[in-house]
Each structure stands twice: as C-alpha cells, then as structure tokens.
UniProtKB/TrEMBL annotation:
Entry's transmembrane regions: 6-34, 55-79
Identification of the protein by name: DoxX family protein
Natural source organism: Heyndrickxia acidicola
Record's keyword terms, sorted: Membrane, Transmembrane, Transmembrane helix
UniProt domain TQO small subunit DoxD: residue ranges: 3-82
One protein family per Pfam: DoxD
Domain of life: Bacteria
Length: 87
C-alpha cells in the first residue's frame, strides 16, 4: 500500500495518469476511513483522531477522478507530441 501511495503521489505531482492514480487513492482513503477511524467519529476524541483528514483527501481524489488533470498533466504533452509526429 505504501508503494502505491508514494509512486501514485509522485505521479499526481507530475500529472501522469491522474484519473487512474486518483481512483486508486479514493479506494485507499475509503478503506482507511472505514477500517481505522470510524470508531472515533468525524472529529475524533481526546485519544484518537477522527476521519476528517481522510475524508478531505478522499474528496480531493474524487475531484481528480471526475475532472482529471485537464491541461496540467504530462500525458497531454506526450499525446500532443505523438499526434504531431503522426500528422
């Protein structure tokens, strides 16, 4: 799991495969929210943190799944160069 998060985070930074990596991140964050933080509630208590941070990351990743990286992703440059060579 940690490898997916590190490599996926780097891929998101450079904008490569944004929707796919963000979809994996949505699954990871949903699993983290359900398995670990659900007992403490949204804001947590004095002994445990809540799941508000996981929910924030999940919503950001879901935004990227729906909207993609648009023109800010490196795949757009690769595709454009490939299309320029073929025409």
């Amino acid at each position: 799991m940690a490898g997916i998060e590190v490599i996926g985070g780097l891929a998101l930074i450079i904008g490569f495969a944004t929707r796919y990596i963000a979809a994996l991140d949505v699954l990871i964050m949903a699993g983290a929210t359900i398995k670990t933080s659900n007992a403490a509630g949204f804001m947590g208590n004095t002994q445990m943190a809540g799941y508000e941070l996981e929910l924030s990351f999940l919503s950001m990743a879901l935004f990227l799944v729906i909207n993609g990286g648009k023109w800010l992703f490196i795949g757009h440059l690769i595709i454009r160069k490939h299309l320029d060579k073929t025409h």
